[in-house]
Amino acid sequence: MRRYEEDIWSEIAKFLDGKSLVKLAATNRWFRRVIMDDTIWKFVSLRDLQVPPPPSLVAYRWSKLYTSAFDGSHSFMFHQQEKHIDWMRIGAFSLDSSLALLAERLSFPKKIRKEDTVENMLQSHGCCMLDNVKSGIWIADLQLVRCPVCDLNTCDGTMQTLDARHIELFLCEGYQNGSWEYQLIGSHDIKKRADGAAGAIFDFTHLKGSSTSAVFDYPSWIGRQNDWQPKAKIAPHAVAVNTNLQDNEGLHVKYHTMRAGSDGEVVAIRISQQLL
């Protein structure tokens, strides 16, 4: 009979949100044992993040991953708080492979030739390839920060950043103690008027798939020309942002990544733009 009751409550729990689950688990020891079962939290996490199961096992309990994803935290809460202005959560997407494409535009040539350096790829295509990326679920935010964080002394304005991280990042000791840091992997100037400040991250293996096509249909989501509010698009294997711009002289674009140790996998990505 008790096993039957556990099965019933396990199924009921799958219809509750995270806060309700925590409250139910706090009622007594029996409910805590039933509700804190990790299979329940995995189901709820994937449901609320709207992503498929990751291709490999996760390193932390799903209850902790759920908290990390939904407690309202973002990367600038832990480092460079004084630079932060505002942010919005975009959503979650999946990287099934270790190869990602980072882009500063929402359209590029059908054939992308991998150059010998990131800088050359950025100059010729407005995008670059990134390998050894940690597969799994990624969380994407749009950040607005003060420009001094980007080291351009001539600018006292703001900078837009597409900020993506692996779902496990905030739980990792290397991130918490500050030993993992963002490293600049490429930058360049767009020395002409830019209609918008855009950034995108794609799982390269799904670049031409139907699941990514909604991102490339950018006229449907970037807003009208006189709409200056930032817009974002999330897809199963990609994320993109765009902010329409008024008259300008171009953009300065920077790409940063964070690795899990000096030679570890890429666990966080930032694409930042500021006006020249």
Automatic annotation (TrEMBL):
InterPro entries assigned to the protein according to its UniProt record, in alphabetical order: F-box-like_dom_sf, F-box_dom
Lineage top rank: taxon: Eukaryota
Domain F-box: 1-44
One matching Pfam family: F-box-like
GO biological process assignments: reproductive system development
Any one Gene Ontology cellular component term annotated for this protein: nucleus
Gene3D superfamilies, A to Z: 1.20.1280.50
Protein's UniProt name: F-box domain-containing protein
Species assigned in the record: Acacia crassicarpa
